[in-house]
Task: structure prediction
Amino acid sequence: MPMYEENSIKQPKVLIPEVKIQARIAELAQEINHDYRGKEITAICVLKGSFIFFSDMIRKIDLPMTCEFLGVSSYGNKMVSSGEIKVTLDIHEPLEKKNVILFEDIVDTGLTLSYMLNMLKTRKPASIKTCALLLKPESLKTDIDVDYLGFKVGNEFVVGYGVDFAGKWRGLPYIGYLEHDH
Result:
């Protein structure tokens, strides 16, 4: 039984099942716990798409931590990133001398992530690393490394597990992809 009914778009097909996502999150959290042992981190959730990934990650990370939220938009209601980045919610706490990890749902062109990293580096953190659930290597338009990566995906238009299309599909427990009607 589909959770949503769309006339133009069918229910997303499963690309990465929930069980695989949860297993990978446990592994990523272990890597972060190991790399930051004895340190405090500032975990930044990139809104809106990362909130589910972020909440699952921070519950598995066993370190002293503060949580911040950064809102950015580069899609609007389009299926392709506009490349024009708007900050919709900024961080209120100073990042100077903090160990920052930026949590992103999906790295597509890499331009948004690159923009955010440059913006955050001006605030003089002790270190800044990135953690992303998904990366589309074929779509990258900038040379960017993701320090902690869940999964590489192709050029499918992915939704679910926080990732939306025009505000829909965020609540799916898996990563799915939308098929276009040609």
Remarks:
- The beta strands are 13-16, 41-47, 65-73, 86-89, 99-107, 127-135, 148-152, 157-159, 175-178.
- Residues 14-178 form a domain with the Rossmann fold fold (CATH 3.40.50.2020).
- The mean pLDDT is 90.
- DSSP finds three helices and nine strands in the chain.
